[in-house]
Amino acid sequence: MTIPRDIVSPPKTAVPSSPSPSSFFNAGTSPSYGTSYFPPAPEKQLKPFNTGDIKILLLEDINRTARELLQKEGYQVEFHTSSLQDIDLIEKIRDVHVIGIRSKTKLTASVLDHAENLLAIGCFCIGTDQVDLEYAAKRGVTVFNSPFSNSRSVAELVIAEVIMLARRIGDKSMEMHSGTWQKGSARCREIRGKVLGIIGYGHIGSQLSVLAESVGMSVLFYDVVPLMAIGKARQVKSLSELLVSSDFVTLHVPETHETRDLIGRTELMAMKEGSYLINASRGRVVDLQALWYEPPLIIDQPVLSDVLIANLCLENIYMCSEAMRSGHLAGAALDVFPREPSADGPYFNKDLARWATEIRNLPNIILTPHIGGSTEEAQEAIGAEVGEALLGYINFGCTIGAANMPEVALRSITVAEESHLRVIFIHQNRPGVLRQVNDILGDHNVDKQMSDSRGDVSIRAQEPLLARLACSR
């Protein structure tokens, strides 16, 4: 839906040949057929196209639950275990109707410009920042994600990292693997009675709150909107209040213009001495400029620490490696990074970024390759959730749960209702469009209709009751 065209009165004859799935969905992006097609067969078809015509591209080893669900429906499913380079992605996306991705594949405006038939994008993960949502909406491409299904997995990883950091398990394990027996309690602590500060009290943050209280921690949380606390957790009024009060600070926010560089040098200086930072959200929520600050070579400089080196790029990394030993922060756990390899393998090194090699040698830092939601249970649930959403959209025009479209849904049409059909129309939110649609359908009995807007995009779902409808494009 690049440039929606005016709706004109339909001609009296219907086109006898079947249009492609994309021509049915994306007004303004496909060649004009003059009219939309509805099968003349007496038996009701629940979709306006042949199921086998739908081409789906699944990247990044998406769980077999989704693959089997889509294949069972009869769609053409192409599966890849990794992401694709831009040139290969552009070539593959040209004629597919649905693409399924995780966090590595970047669907920018320049990539989406080559997607001639694309109807929907399935993000088989929590985040959607890897997709240009606004541009996708302008093209009439609906984006679905899974905001709930891996919340528990991420929360469990974080609570495990809290315990491991407090007991310095990472360092102790590495020492044992190298053959060193070093028993001692120095700088090892219990987490009972400690304060966990949660930045972002959404699906993950709230579940983490429950887990933390169950092991005896007190919970503070900061969010941009007032939220009902679970258990004994307490919402604080400002980020600074959380930072100065927490023994452990954990980030659970999306990457947006507002959250990028959320934690910078000032915030790190405000954290309690001997505290810990955990980042399992997005790598860029920590200010990349914070470590470009070059302080005097004073070994006990409090702002430079394990976590600073681990999160951010560094101009003079050796000087700061000395300064981090001040102990202002006792450690960090990082599951996300400003830059991440596009494929599995030995790629977390200096070729990725200058800091990649250095942080591997820093004390009491847990590094994991963006696996917060990577459990079998979570991936199976995500595959089912996003897969079902894609089926609902392709088969019935349901946009419930869409990340970039208004949410509309009409009841399912049964096979017995041979005279019913479904019309989904995505258009720019401008005056007069609905009047034009109603002029076309005015002579028919409209059984159900829904209309909603989201920014510059509107969507309208109608269920006319008639034997055949010729609808202009």
TrEMBL record:
GO BP terms, alphabetized: L-serine biosynthetic process
Record flagged with keyword Membrane: no
Transmembrane segments: none
Region (Disordered): 1-27
Biased composition annotated in UniProt, kind: Low complexity: 9-23
Residue stretches in coiled coil: none
Enzyme nomenclature, EC number: 1.1.1.95
Pfam families: 2-Hacid_dh, 2-Hacid_dh_C
Pathway annotation from the record: Amino-acid biosynthesis; L-serine biosynthesis; L-serine from 3-phospho-D-glycerate: step 1/3
Domain ACT: 422-473
Keywords: Amino-acid biosynthesis, NAD, Oxidoreductase, Serine biosynthesis
Catalytic reactions of this protein: (2R)-3-phosphoglycerate + NAD(+) = 3-phosphooxypyruvate + NADH + H(+)
Major enzyme class: oxidoreductase
Name by which UniProt lists this protein: phosphoglycerate dehydrogenase
Organism the protein comes from: Tuber aestivum (summer truffle)
